[in-house]
Amino acid sequence: MSSFIIGSLIVMAVLAMLLGIVLAVASKVFHVDVDPRIEQVDELLPGANCGGCGLAGCAAAAEKIVAGDAAPSICPVCGDDARAEIYELLGMSSEETEPHIARMLCGGGTGCKDKEEYHGVEDCRAAVLIQEGPKACHFACVGLSSCVEACPFEAIFIGDDGLPHVIEERCTACGACERVCPRGVIAVMPAKRTVWVKCQSHDKGKVVNKICKTGCIACRRCEKECPVDAIHVIDNLAVIDYEKCILCGKCAKVCPKNTIVDLRARRRAEKKAKEAEAAGKPA
Amino acid sequence: MLKTFQGGVHPPEKKELARDQAIEPFPAPPEVVLYLSQHIGAPAQPAVEKGDTVKKGQVVGEAGGFVSAPVHASISGTVKAIEPRPHPLGGDQPAVVIESDGKGEWAEDVNDERDWSGMSASDVRDAIQAAGIVGMGGATFPTHVKLSPMDGKPIHDLVINCAECEPYLTCDYRQMIEQTEEIVAGLRILMKATGAENGWIAIEANKPDAFDRFVAATEDDPDITVEMLEVKYPQGAEHQITAALLGREIPSGGLPLDIGVICQNTGTTVAVYEALRYNRPLIERVVTVTGEGVERPGNLRVPLGTPVGAILEAAGLRDGVNKLVLGGPMMGLAQYTPEVSVTKGTSGILALVDAEVYDWRACIRCGRCVDACPWQLVPSYLSIICEAKNVDAIQASDIMDCKECGCCTYVCPSRRPIVHLVKYGKGELARLRAEEQDRKAED
Fold first, then answer.
1. A202 at interface of B, judged by CB pairs closer than 8 A
2. Can you give the residue range of the structural domain that contains B270?
């Protein structure tokens, strides 16, 4: 009995040795050089696989960056620190990038009339296939949350006004929302642009006034008010030239339809309201 | 056994509403809206300006290319505006708006009897192109393009599609009864233009009187065969009618031309005859006004550009209409406003009462849509991958073979909007391909 056990042990030991030798030889013969930097770069990338770079996930981006096929700045999501580290790792000089953010370019929502009852597939791109979508304005946000679904960072939600809202702290400017929007009313732009026109309609003012509470009616008051000649009504829509714009917000103040957003003025007002509330409460 | 194809459905026909109403001319409206895009292909370019006086049959829009068709004034009067107006296909599209002068005068160089027997095949095609004739079943593909020979593919069979398989519609049927001779003459013209040896007239079995008329009219012509087909939707689709009639299948992504066949709609054939015989451009068409919401259903010869609202008003609307469809109930398009106007492809105006709205649920994989699909696709699977936005699966699927006939949606017990999902999937596919092309162009 014991000889049987000893015999099989010897057989197993010999087999293990032989296989070990085969594996050792194979690892030498079939050795593949993996650049250790790929893994390092991959670790520095956000790992959300959002596709913002246009490649199949972060690992693919890391491979391309190390191979030199893509710029280390290809990832729109990573912060400046991570980007600087990637540049350092590759021995390249880093460059500062401007922070970007997704902004809504339509203020319609519930203030924009519906022209039909829509009972189809709940998706913006499916809805615009049928009679240009349920909204009376053919430039407006459809509001069926394609961007919300597309956002890999859960940075967008549909508010009570029927419009998508971007949570600034979460938005990484990957551009996934911009790519799925059939109307192009959500767009990634430099975060420092605190003044922008929240309308994309090229319809005539009379038409816009009838169907939307906040659409640009091309009244040109902003044009007259602008101290640096940076805003112009082109094809029935106010357009800001950011080369000239000094973000003073005067256009937003005079806009009769509140089409132009001035983020800084809005924040100031919110702060004031909060302070007033805080001051009012104890009394 | 009547000839037919595999798959398909048989919805209630509802043709009795309007089938016995003879075609009546609809009086010229005070204003017509002629869209510059009433066909597949490049939109027409305006040939008149605001303020111009135009006469009936005058060109108001020149063809914008080879795959395009001219648009002619359907009434005489003055051009009021050239501006975007709501289009039945969705959105506002440029249109020539003509205000009537009430005279209905024809332009000088049209509406004359002529002898077409001496014309060559290419002359016939040119005349059809000049008359602005497009497929009047609803697809509105320019007829001259369809008839033009393509890289050495000979045409053997010319099929006049008299199936009219869409429920409710009777405009083709009325023309079969009232204009039998014209249709047969049109078929002969088309055979001449294409060099086809065999002419076919294919009729669904629910129109036996039309069948008898055609048999009588073609008795002495051995080249023309009149055939009766089973009553089934979509018997009138090109793929299905060729499969039923000739037993030949059109390859995936191909045209009837690939198997030496051309199919023409009944109304188109009449228009071809009138264009050749009387030099009359396409400025009016027969439209069936029907549905449970219409007091006086009928078949009307309507000048193109007539507002749908005016026609409905004349026919009388009942209470409770909650859906307006242009075309048949299976493939027609629901409208949000009666302000749209009749185009070359408007075969029917349907006012439906108490059209139900359904909630839809998950696919239960019962397979009814698979049985019904006349293209032998698996609609349930297509709807699932489109719903999941699985672009890889969509790309690998045969989704482009779907012609959106709606049989699957009609039979689905889960009330899934399969056609809408497939439409969405096709859109995604097109977007993906465009993106890929952009990337290639960048590289």
1. no
2. 127-278
